[in-house]
Design goal:
Residues 16-134 form the RCK N-terminal domain. The protein contains 10 helices and 11 strands. It is of the alpha/beta class. Strands 3-2-1-4-5-6 form a 6-stranded parallel sheet, with helices on both faces. A hairpin with a 2-residue loop joins β7 (153-160) and β8 (163-169).
Length: 231
């Protein structure tokens, strides 16, 4: 997540309880199902009758309607312009995705989050006013590549292009050494945030604690320094 994304999420109201999701493919269904499971009121939308029927059967949203989101009148009649946040999950149909995003912004929707399927798609969505664009295929591809080349890194949160927070397995070279002995800040330019043992993390562990191979550790720093770890 970059700083522009952070600025966007700061504008979202924590007390917003309603969301609309347009496009009920795999991505849209996952968004609907998760929001619905968390107790939010979700309106699911798709042009495909089969997808609408399946969404109703699976109960992934409070309400599901079939409509053409490229028609502003249809969106208005369904009350979608009244939603504060709408997710456009029509990633594989570029024209429909862009037109829908434009309609939502012109209809007064404050926060439009759209899924992109290519770099060109991403740029066009930004041009027509999308407030935040997600690119799940690219993000998954980057994550997979990192897992394949750095299997000891379990999770990574990108702070910006040059800095990250990563969860990784304690390297064999660190086995049995105390945090003080490792002196990660001086040797690697990294700060240790937490150590994972069993099923819980210990935040800000004490300097005299010993690390064991197979445990997890969470560090923050530059990607260049993270790559210097003996993993």
């Amino acid at each position: 997540m970059n700083l522009s994304s952070l600025n966007f999420f700061r504008t979202l109201r924590a007390d917003n309880k309603q969301f609309a999701v347009i496009g009920l493919g795999r991505f849209g269904k996952a968004v609907c199902s998760t929001l619905h499971g968390l107790g939010y009121e979700v309106l699911g939308v798709d042009t495909d009758e089969k997808k609408v029927t399946q969404a109703l059967t699976d109960r992934i949203a409070a309400h599901v309607v079939q409509l053409d989101s490229t028609e502003p009148s249809a969106l208005g009649e369904a009350g979608i312009f009244e939603f504060e946040t709408v997710i456009v999950a029509i990633g594989n149909y570029l024209a429909e995705s862009i037109t829908t995003t434009l309609n939502l912004k012109e209809g007064g929707v404050s926060h439009v989050i759209a899924k992109a399927s290519s770099e060109t798609h991403l740029k066009l969505l930004k041009k027509v006013g999308a407030d935040h664009v997600v690119f799940p295929e690219r993000e998954m591809g980057c994550s997979l590549a990192r897992l394949l080349t750095q299997p000891s890194i379990l999770e990574r949160f990108d702070l910006d292009p040059d800095h990250s927070i990563v969860e990784l397995l304690v390297p064999e070279k660190f086995d049995g050494k105390t945090i003080s002995e490792l002196d990660l800040r001086r040797r690697y330019g990294l700060n240790l945030l937490a150590v994972g043992r069993a099923d819980k993390f210990e935040i800000n562990p004490q300097p005299n604690e010993r690390l064991k191979k197979g445990e997890a550790m969470v560090v923050v720093g530059s990607n260049k320094d993270i790559n210097r770890l003996p993993i």
